[in-house]
Amino acid sequence: MKKGKVLIVDDEIKILHLVEMYLTKNEYKVTAVNNGKAALKEIEREKFDIVVLDIMMPDMTGYQVCKKIRRHNNIPVIFLSSLQESDLIVKGLEYGGDDYITKPFDPNVLVAKVNAVLRRTKKDSVVLGSRLVEPLTGQERQILYWIDKGYTNKEIAEKFNLTIGTVKVYNHTIFQKLHVKNRTQAIVKAKELNII
Questions:
Q1: pLDDT tens track for 39-52
Q2: Are 53 and 9 a contacting pair, CB within 8 Å?
Q3: Contact (CB, 8 A) for 156 and 167
């Protein structure tokens, strides 16, 4: 039985084949594409459990792809990139990435990270009473963390270079997922679930 469906996005064909081979060997069903637009089409067409996403691609960056995914979808995203500067890694996580692997990389480590992220996101889908709490994305967790620290929507918007409207949308999504009505209830629920 397959562990889950993985979408790999990278413009380097050798890397696509290498990652595909290792994930397939570890019982994942893999779809591989070599650009951002093709990735977004695949995500519209099929339900994936996780995306392994390159950043530097000719048509659009992995950051842009991740941002578009995050508008409608909570699929976990692992960035796989030759960009190794810490501020670019932080940027990837702030755009909604759940993890970040730098190239060159050990394929076994990548498989272990895919396993770990999927374990974590499945664990986050906790049943409370009879209601399922959906997993929060990396960006949603970070926003919740800063809400817990007492930051206002305006301060969070400035911190993540977002509009206040976007932060409010994030808040609304977080409240829906946690089945709460406000920031205070969200913090209480998140602490109960060990999300923050």
A1: 999 999 998 999 99
A2: yes
A3: yes
Neighbouring CB atoms inside 10 A of 188's CB total 12
Signed CA dihedral, 100, 164, 152, 195: sign only: negative
Would you give the DSSP letter of residue 56? -
Domain residue extents for the chain: 5-124, 127-192
**pTM (2 decimals)?**
0.64
**DSSP code of residue 131:** E
What does the pLDDT look like over 22-36, one tens digit per residue?
A: 999 999 999 999 999
Q: Which of these CATH numbers, 3.40.50.2300, 3.40.50.300, 3.40.1000.10, 3.40.50.2000, describes 5-124?
A: 3.40.50.2300
Read off the DSSP letter of residue 35: S
Going by C-beta distance under 8 Å and a sequence separation of 6 or more, which residues neighbour residue 127?
133
